Amino acid sequence: MSERSSVPLVAEPGDDARDDLDRARSGDDDAFRRLVEPLRGQLHAHCYRMLGSTHDADDALQDALVRAWRGLARFEGRSSFRSWLYTVATRTCLDSVERRGKRALPVDLGPSTDHAVVGDAPLSEVAWLGPYRDSGLSDGLLGPGARYEQREAVELAFVAALQHLPGNQRAALLLFDVLGFSAAEIAAIMDTTTTSVNSALARARKVVAAKAPSVTQQQTLRKIDDARIREVVHGFCTALERGDTDALVALLTQDVTWSMPPMPHWYRGLPAVTDFAVRVPLTGCGSWRHLVTSANAQPAVGCYLWNDDAGAHQAWSINVLALRGDRIAEITSFVGAEHFRVFELPDSLP
User: Fold this and answer.
1) N or C: which end of the chain has fewer CB within 10 A?
2) pTM for this predicted structure
3) What is 15-105+148-213's CATH number?
4) Which CATH class is domain 218-349?
5) Which of 162, 89, 86, 90 is nearest to 129 (CA)?
6) How many CA atoms are closer than 13 Å to the CA of 148, on its beta-carbon side?
């Protein structure tokens, strides 16, 4: 939860917006796009929090906007246009949750592994949580009642914790604690009662408190000098490229974890993580190159592995780092070239 207050990002519509709404109701799609554009990034982030996948968020947002456009003539203005859009987007996401279920990380599947599993094979039948490109997020709160900042609310641990909630609890928590809607507004959005909303909120908060760290990455990162953060990220990249075990270990906490969805095995603790690092990325894979990025409002690295057939370093994984103090406490390596396209990173490096 944020310790910092911010100016809400929600403003009352001006005359131009009201004019655009009238035009959009009359079938002006350009006016509709102007209404939606200021909210598009927030809506997409909401869909990602609900669904745990950028691809699913893309589809859900597109579906929601089509539904909104087709149903705009029925929008009577009893709520704000923003509230109505979030109603459509939330219900679209709930439909998707019902069809597809929740997404997971390796830690959700079973206990950690003590020693490196060489040649670990992807587990394709699991719907895996994916990373989120956070470049469009600001640092402010989304509404006057919001408890989480935008960037806190896309952190990997928080989104992973949300996946342990049923759809209605997930929606209630996000609408109340992230977006700042009231219980009465959420009851209208979800077509239920305020009593049901408050009950869902209480259950959801209990689960998230147990699953997500009490200190967010934003709180941690604000306490670390930016130069030190860059030093840690650069040190991680350099250690992998040089195969330098000692340099890598010096950056890690004693209880560090390393997971690699869609690979099912994961590692906890310095001995297990060191064994994996030595036997797989540091000595068993070949030459690495890296590009620094950001994912889920956390430091991240795009890792490229040498491919003889291509004669280049090919996109391999987006590594999202979680820090504690000024050391790395979690490494989540999202393996797959498809993630690089989301981050607009190149498919290969020399």
Assistant:
1) C
2) 0.93
3) 1.20.140.160
4) alpha beta
5) 162
6) 25
